[in-house]
Each structure stands twice: as C-alpha cells, then as structure tokens.
C-alpha cells in the first residue's frame, strides 16, 4: 500500500476553514502554515494543496484559493522581511499567501512540489516539514553549514579521544614528555620541604647550622633541575606539536581535494581557508597546553594535596574550603559565557570570508568606485568581531578576579588558623612556612584549571571543525566495482536525465540527447535555462537524480571519476589562471608536456603571438588569476591548456565570449581542425559560431524545446530563430554606433 504524505498532521485548529471549503484532511497532499496575512499583519494561516486546488485558509474560515488547472506556474517573490507564494493565472501573478523570511525555505520547496503536482509527478510532502538546515533541531543553535553538527551538542569527549589518536605516531616522544613532566612535578615539591628543614633545623633551633650550605645547595639544585626539565619538555612539545600540525594540515588539504563540487557550493572559501590555517594551528599548542598545562597542574594538585595532609591535616581541610565555590562558579560561568564564544567564532569566520571575497574582486571594487562602501561593510563586520571579543573579554575579566579573591580568602584562613597553631606550639614555624609555600603552589594550578575550560573548548571546537572536513564523505564517489577508462571514443548520451542542485527544485527536466564520436554539439538558451548544468553533469561534478548519462554506451557512474575527467577537456566561461609561468599554466593538466607540445597548443589557441610579445615569453610569471592579461588572452591560455591534454571530448562553455571577433574567428578556424576527431560540446553566446555544428540543442526552463541543425532550426522559426534575430539586430545597432 502506498504511504500517504504527512497530511494527517494538518493542525486541527483549521478544521472549520477546511470544512467550509469541503476539503477533507485525507484530500490534502501538501500543506504549510504562513505567519502573515496578505497585508503583512501577524496571522495564523494554513496553505493546502489538493489534487485540484491551492488554498490558504485562516482558523476562522477566510480563504484565498485558485484551481490548479488555471495555474500556469508558481513562484516565491521575496520582499523586505517577508515573501509571497504566488500563482500565475491568465498571465498575472496572484498572491496566495504571505510569510516571514524564516519560512521562505519551506515555501520554496513547496513551489517545486506544486510544479510536480501540476505536471502529474509524485510529490514529496515530507520535504516541506524538515527543519531549517542551518538550525540544530535539538537545541536551536545556528550551525555553520547545512552538513555541520551543532557545536553545543557535540560530544567533546569523542573529539578529544580522536585528537589523542593523532598522537599515536609520536607515542615515544609523548611518553618521554610525560616522564619528564612527572619528574618536574616531583622536583617542584622539594623546595617547600627543604624550606621547612632550613627554618626548623638551622635558623630557629640552630641544631644543625652546618646544614645551611647543604640545604641552600639542594634548593639551587632543585631549581636548576626543574628549569632543565621544563626546557627539555618545552622543546619536545614544540617538536611534537609542529609535526602534528604538519600532518593534519596535509591531511585536510588532501581531503579538500577529494570532496565533491557541491561541498564548495555550500561552504565559503574564506571559511575553509580559516580551517586550514587558524583551526589547524590550534593543534600546535595541544601537547603544550594538555601536557604542561593540564596534566602538570593535575599532578601538582595531587602531589601538593598529599604533602599538605602529611604536614597538617587540619590546616589542609581549611585549604579545601574555597574549592566547592570555585567549581560552582566555574560551571555557572561557562554555561553563561559559551554562547558568547559561539558568536566570536561566527564573527571571525564571517570576517575571513568577507576579506577573501573582497580582495579577490578588488578590481571590481575599484571599477565601480565602491571603496567607501566596502570600508563601511568591513567596519560593520569588524565592529561585530570587536563586540564579540569585548563580551568574552569582559566575562573572563570579571571571572578571574572573583576566582583570585576566593583563592586569596583560602590563604587568609590558613594564615589565621596556622598562626594560632604556631602560637599554641601545635606546629612549628617551619611547618607553617612550608605549608604556606605549598598553598601558593596549590592555588596556582587550581586557578589555571578554572581557565583551562576556556582553552579546552576553543581547542575542541577547532578540532571539531577539522574533523568535520576529514569526516565529510564526497557526495560523488566511485562505486566499489568502478572500472578504469583507458580510452574513449566520444559517444555521449543523456537518457531522460533530471537533476537539481536542490533535489526538490530540478534544473534539468527529462533531458535526452545523443552525440556521436567526432560530432559537434551546440547548446543554446537563455541564462538560467540549464546549459552549464549539462556540462557539469558530463564532467560528473554532480550525479543525476534520475536518468542515465553514458559515454560510449556505458553509464559514467561505472567509471572511476579521475579516469573519466582525464578524457574531457573543459574550457570555462570565466578563465582561471594560477600564479606561475605561462608555460606552467598551459601544462597544468599535463605537467610532463614538452615545450614543443606547449607551444603547439598555444599556436592552436592563437595565443603564441601575444605570449612571445611578453617580457619572458613562456617563462613570464603571471599574477593572481592572470593579472596583467586581457580577458581574451586569459581565455586563449585556458583553451591552450585544454587542447594540450588532447581530450577525446572537448567542452567549451561560452569559451569565446570574452574575445574579440577577429580572435574568435582565428580560434574557430583552429578548433575546426582540432574538432574533427573529437566530440565537441559548445555552449555559445554568439550563436553564429554554431553554424557548422552537427546538432544544436535549444534549452528553455530545463527542457530541450528544439533540436536540429542551424539550417533546420532557422526554417522552423522557433526560439532559436528568435534568438538569432535578436543578436542580429543588436549586432547591427553596434555596427551603426
């Protein structure tokens, strides 16, 4: 029996309105609640779709509705602070419901499901009621990405155990550090005890005055030994810390190379850069902080506690009086201050992402004279970071003096009680001096442990962000039975392919076509129609939701991704060049290419002449993203890069859109020769370049609406003909001007 959508959970408070419309709950296929009326006032409104109607109804029975048969399409129109669900009826958009932006993501999904319902395809009602992807469903705290776990709900112990697992390759060094730390703690306990001997046996009673030089020498030796051990531990900790940081940074970068393209669609580059740099650097101090900080302090507290009870158990109990108050205050403080840390991490991440974006587009900023505006935006983000830092700093600045007061109060109690014991001859002055020396050593580590939670949470959060990358599985992976692809003839076929970057909102809808080896396929259409998506799927940057893409008659999912892409040459609309020489950029896809091969590829792309005019010719260093080259020159270098690999399948995604007409003609002449023995897929901005294509696909709204040769499509006088006519008129206007 087919499982029905989750319509049984339609809120009962709308029963009156549904009954008035004659709609039974079992007739409801899709439903959502809106929180505004059409005038923008707060309201409780139910939006339901049946097999025949789309209706919004209030708890009192007021409604707005349309018949689905009259609806041509649906959309969400965003405004300031709110949005509308609209249906297109008789060429006009009709408002069906209004809602705040907090519910917009649900109604965007509803539009996709309404399209499915209108077309007679199955609907996915459960998709509408999933929680917002950026909000933790447990505690409601914002997450840094849709795939990230909640930082508040994460298990810190599990993260810590994984961090400890990273120390396994360095275990001998770690053991040596631990042994030296224990030895250092033992030496730290010696000076106060020697002070007791010095006061009681030498200075006060004068029974062993000849011990003076020996005790002082022993004190000096203990201090020297402790300094030597601390120096050795510090050097070893630095050695292990740098090795761990190197290993993790290398693993993270390697993992980033493995992840699918959709991971970079969801995560800003600036955020990923922060993780590889700042978050990884947190591991550098782990051995020092966890070892010299946490473990040393714990060992000191235990050792000093033993010595305190050994010298005077009653006074030792007085020392413990502030501890329960400290534990309570630390717990209370951390629960209150943790959200401030979350805001601080968020502000740092946003600032890094903003800097990466603006500095990468600095030419655009200068071109539109938007320096002042960007300074204002940076100032707003910097103020957000400043305020976040300030709030954390004020909290810590309040907490630390409170702890110091509590610890000082414990010392005063011991002075009072210990002084009375000395006056009553129950303990000696040397015992009190030793006791007070141990108290100074006892409260110091205890105070450090109260602040250790701050560092620990910072570190665990940084570690969690690193493990989040390492644990992310590529959404596109080779199947276990994937086979190598030694050669490709070049037959490409789409068989009823449907795909959307959001699975509930398809970009390509039931697309089918075939290209034979050696043929040229042209793809044209309006912006946003799905042309580049076809290219992304051929390269298998994404996997289809339904349908099959084949090369030489075999599903591309049967091949190893790396092998598949080695047989495809891709030239993007926006050329990207790395910082390096011209030759290195051309040979990027084939690092072992000879200079003769590099030059031949440059000549084929009509790039050789302008390269030879450069100061260092092929050895000229290029700036960031090819700074100093024109758009056409950068594009010709990217074409040369693709041609050097000699791929059996060549894809040009509007590759000649940024070159002048003369250069485009020269490139087309070269490509006409090079494309004879390879399958070529061309997305063209200038439709005249597709006159010689074997087949042209006209894409509109994710569907192929026309196909055929240039001549047949012109004779059909459809969308392709209208696009050609529009470009012809624009070209004529440009020529006249």
Keywords:
737 residues; alpha+beta; PH-domain like; ABC transporter transmembrane region fold; Rossmann fold; 3 domains; 6-stranded mixed β-sheet; 4-stranded antiparallel β-sheet; 15% strand; disordered N terminus
CATH superfamily of the largest domain: ABC transporter type 1, transmembrane domain
Q: What share of the residues does DSSP label as strand, in percent?
A: 15-25%
Provide the number of structural domains: 3
CATH third-tier fold name of the largest domain: ABC transporter transmembrane region fold
Provide the CATH top-level class of the largest domain: Mainly Alpha
Q: Structural class given helices, strands, pairing?
A: alpha+beta
Chain-averaged pLDDT: 77
The helix content, as a percent range, equals: 40-55%
Please count the helical segments. 23
Overall geometry comes to: extended
Radius of gyration: 36 Å
Low-confidence stretches: 1-7
What can you see in these coordinates?
- This protein is α+β, with helices and mostly antiparallel strands.
- The chain has three domains: 6-129, Pleckstrin-homology domain (PH domain)/Phosphotyrosine-binding domain (PTB) (PH-domain like), CATH 2.30.29; 170-471, ABC transporter transmembrane region fold (Up-down Bundle), CATH 1.20.1560; 483-567 and 680-737, Rossmann fold, CATH 3.40.50.
- The strands form five sheets. Strands 13-16-17-10-18-19 form a six-stranded mixed sheet, with helices on both faces.
- Strand 18 (695-700) and strand 19 (703-708) form a beta hairpin.
- Helix 11 packs parallel to helix 14.
- It is extended.
- The model is unreliable at 1-7 (pLDDT under 50).
């Amino acid at each position: 029996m087919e499982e029905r959508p989750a319509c049984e959970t339609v809120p009962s408070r709308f029963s009156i309105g549904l009954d008035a419309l004659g709609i039974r709950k079992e007739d409801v296929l899709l439903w959502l609640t809106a929180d505004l009326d059409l005038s923008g006032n707060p309201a409780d409104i139910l939006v339901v779709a049946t097999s025949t109607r789309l209706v919004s109804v209030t708890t009192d029975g007021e409604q707005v509705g349309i018949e689905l048969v009259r609806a041509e399409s649906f959309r969400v129109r965003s405004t300031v602070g709110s949005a509308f669900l609209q249906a297109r009826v008789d060429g006009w958009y009709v408002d069906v419901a209004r809602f705040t932006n907090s519910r917009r993501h649900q109604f965007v999904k509803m539009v996709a499901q309404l399209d499915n319902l209108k077309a007679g395809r199955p609907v996915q009602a459960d998709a509408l009621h999933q929680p917002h992807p950026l909000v933790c469903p447990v505690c409601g705290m914002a997450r840094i990405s849709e795939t990230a776990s909640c930082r508040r709900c994460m298990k810190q112990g599990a993260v810590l155990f994984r961090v400890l697992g990273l120390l396994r390759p360095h275990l001998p060094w770690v053991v040596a550090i631990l042994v030296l730390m224990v030895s250092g703690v033992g030496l730290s306990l010696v000076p106060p005890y020697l002070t007791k001997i010095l006061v009681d046996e030498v200075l006060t009673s004068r029974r062993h005055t000849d011990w003076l030089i020996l005790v002082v020498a022993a004190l000096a030796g203990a201090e020297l030994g402790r300094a030597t051990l601390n120096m050795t531990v510090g050097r070893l900790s630095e050695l292990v810390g740098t090795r761990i940081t190197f290993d993790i940074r290398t693993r993270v970068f390697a993992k980033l190379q493995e992840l699918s393209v959709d991971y970079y669609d969801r995560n800003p580059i600036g955020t990923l850069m922060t993780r590889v740099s700042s978050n990884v650097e947190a591991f550098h101090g782990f051995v020092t902080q966890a070892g010299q900080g946490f473990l040393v302090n714990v060992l000191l507290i235990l050792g000093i506690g033993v010595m305190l009870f050994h010298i005077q158990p009653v006074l030792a109990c007085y020392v413990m009086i502030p501890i329960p108050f400290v534990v309570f205050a630390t717990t209370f403080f951390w629960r209150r201050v943790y959200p401030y840390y979350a805001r601080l991490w968020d502000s740092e991440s946003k600032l890094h992402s903003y800097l990466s974006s603006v500095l990468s587009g600095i030419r655009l900023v200068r071109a539109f004279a938007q320096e002042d505006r960007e300074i204002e935006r940076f100032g707003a983000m910097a103020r957000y970071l400043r305020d976040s830092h300030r709030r954390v700093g004020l909290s810590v600045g309040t907490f630390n003096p409170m702890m110091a007061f509590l610890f000082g109060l414990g010392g005063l109690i011991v002075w009072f009680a210990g002084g009375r014991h000395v006056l009553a001859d129950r303990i000696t002055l040397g015992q009190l001096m030793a006791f007070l020396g141990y108290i100074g050593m006892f409260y110091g580590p205890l105070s450090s442990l109260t602040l250790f939670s701050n560092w620990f949470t910072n570190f665990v959060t940084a570690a969690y962000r690193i493990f989040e990358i390492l644990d992310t599985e590529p959404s596109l992976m080779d199947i276990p039975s994937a086979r190598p692809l030694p050669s490709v003839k070049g037959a490409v076929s789409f068989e009823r392919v449907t795909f959307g970057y959001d699975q509930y909102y398809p970009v390509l809808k039931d697309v089918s076509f075939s290209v034979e080896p050696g043929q040229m396929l042209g793809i044209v259409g309006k912006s946003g129609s799905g042309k580049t998506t076809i290219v992304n799927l051929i390269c298998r940057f994404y996997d289809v939701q339904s349908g099959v893409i084949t090369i030489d008659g075999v599903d591309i999912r049967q091949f190893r991704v790396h092998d598949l892409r080695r047989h495809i040459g891709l030239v993007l609309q926006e050329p990207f060049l790395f910082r390096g020489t011209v030759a290195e950029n051309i040979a990027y896809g084939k690092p072992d290419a000879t200079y003769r091969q590099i030059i031949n590829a440059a000549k084929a792309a009509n790039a050789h002449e302008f390269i030879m005019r450069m100061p260092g010719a092929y050895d000229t260093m290029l700036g960031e993203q090819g700074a100093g080259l024109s758009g056409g020159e950068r594009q010709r270098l990217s074409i040369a890069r693709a041609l050097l690999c000699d791929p059996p399948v060549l894809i040009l995604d509007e590759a000649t859109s940024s070159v002048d007409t003369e250069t485009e003609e020269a490139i087309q002449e070269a490509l006409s020769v090079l494309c004879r023995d390879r399958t070529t897929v061309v997305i063209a901005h200038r439709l005249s370049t597709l006159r010689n294509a074997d087949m042209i696909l006209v894409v509109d709204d994710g569907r192929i609406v026309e196909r055929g040769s240039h001549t047949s499509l012109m004779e059909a006088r459809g969308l392709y003909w209208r696009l050609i006519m529009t470009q012809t008129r624009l070209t004529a206007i440009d020529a006249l001007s």
